[in-house]
Amino acid sequence: MSESADEVSRDDRPNPAVRRLADWDAARLESLADEYGTPLYVTDLDRVAENCARLREAFPDAEVRYAVKAHTGRAVLETVRDAGLPAECASAGEVHRALGAGFSGDEIQYTAVHPPAEDLDYVVDAWREHPDLTVTVGAADTAERLAERGFDGRLCVRVNPGVGAGHHEKVRTGANAKFGVPYDRAADLVESASEAFDLVGVHAHAGSGISGDDLENHRELVRRMGDLARDVSATGVDLEFVDVGGGFGVPYGEDEPALDLPAVAEATREAIGDIDATLAVEPGRYVVADAGVLLTRVNTVKETPETVVTGVDAGMTTLLRPALYDAYHAIRNLDGEGRETVGATVVGPICESSDVFCENRPLPRPERGDLLAVGNAGAYGYEMASTYNSRPRPAEVALGGEADGESGENAALVRRRETLTDLTEVESR
Ligand code: LLP
């Protein structure tokens, strides 16, 4: 490995709980932007592996599954698989990706959320080839649709625990009727489903981005799942696992404290009580968020009476979270050292007023051509990118892992930048 400043500082702090935007090596990011253009997602596979290791350490007796929806890139999936985490998949497409990345059937949990027929067709076909795959259903109806297709394999029942948590109303699932079998009916469904399927687990998910006071809601969910597991056992059904979902928050604010993962794990173990089954958790964000940054260049600078409008080449189509959830992402001007601080409003090139990364944030006075880095872009970043306004999706490079080779200086282009031709390729006229 090379002795870049970045790596030296990280060696000093083995596997820290959070990697801040300031910890990224600015010179290296500059050279990646020069080489691959912007907007550019940069994903550090070594950091992904560190996050997996920290999770497994905190939950030594539990099964830690990766919710792949946070980042489904193949290099990330392979890294997670090598780190020993199975994959939790939310669609046929995610199962397809997981199989392609080398996860075996027993390392795949498919969580069906009102699944389209094509998803069930695909997954039941995949199950015939990989009979150890597990399907989680959130409705009796979904179990029926699986049975109609001849599925009698490993089944898990998703429960609506009646308690939600998360960083925004739009990502709190636990008490939302859309998700899971109502708590009071769950034990009955588990018992009846155990006749037609190999009933292996129960599952619930509170929501995404849980931290601070919200952790108490998560603990309540875990308590309820412990009670349910004991009720189910009393009916004579043997559960292999109780999955209490994902949702571990990461600090988006520069000064926000990192989640005390060992404490959360301890509280989870305590809340679930004695169960005759393995505890499972399925984080997504925690695995990849701080392993990714988004690089974007300043195209236009416009002084206005209210703010310095800073137009960049990434937008809500590249990173949707600020527009959709008012999410805060740290922003660093890699070229701004020594400049005066101004109130900058960083905006993208999309014709919508929601296309804003931050409003009036104190940043070094921007100049055309500056390179900005947006932090914590590894989770739900590229995944939620779109081609709205006919903007091709950005490229992604991976650092670390095999990509770095001997020198530690290499990066691999793991997703090429889309072209204008890509935009129209699927149209027939
Ligand atoms: N398990 C299930 C069943 C889920 O639905 C999710 C996330 C997870 C696990 C992983 O949650 P995590 O550990 O990543 O918080 N796009 C939103 C997040 C949506 C999460 C949806 N489900 C965002 O950017 O904040």
List the helices and strands and how they pair.
Elements lengths: L4 H8 L13 H11 L3 E5 H14 L4 E2 L1 E2 L6 H9 L4 E3 L2 H9 L7 E5 L4 H13 L4 E4 L2 H9 L5 E7 L20 E2 H14 L1 E6 L11 H20 L6 E3 L17 H12 L5 E4 L3 H4 L3 E12 L4 E5 L8 H5 L5 E3 L7 E7 L8 E9 L6 E4 L20 E5 L12 E4 L4 H5 L5
Helix pairs in contact: 3-4, 3-10, 8-9, 9-10
The protein binds ligand LLP.
Task: Give a structural overview.
With 429 residues, the protein is an alpha/beta fold. The protein folds into 2 domains: 3-41 and 289-424, Lyase, Ornithine Decarboxylase, Chain A, domain 1; 45-286, TIM Barrel. It is 31% helix and 21% strand. It contains 13 helices and 19 strands. The strands form 2 sheets. Strands 2, 3, 4, 5, 6, 7, 8, 9, 10 and 11 form a 10-stranded parallel β-sheet that branches. The longest helix is centred in the middle third of the chain and has 20 residues, at 215-234. The radius of gyration is 22 Å and the shape is globular. It starts with a helix and ends in a 5-residue tail after the last helix. The relative contact order is 0.16. Mean pLDDT is 95; it is low at 1-11. Bound molecules: ligand LLP. Ligand LLP is lined by residues 67, 69-70, 88, 111, 171, 173, 205, 208-209, 245-248, 282-286, 321, 325, 380. Residues 67, 69-70, 88, 111, 171, 173, 205, 208-209, 245-248, 282-286, 321, 325, 380 line the site of ligand LLP.
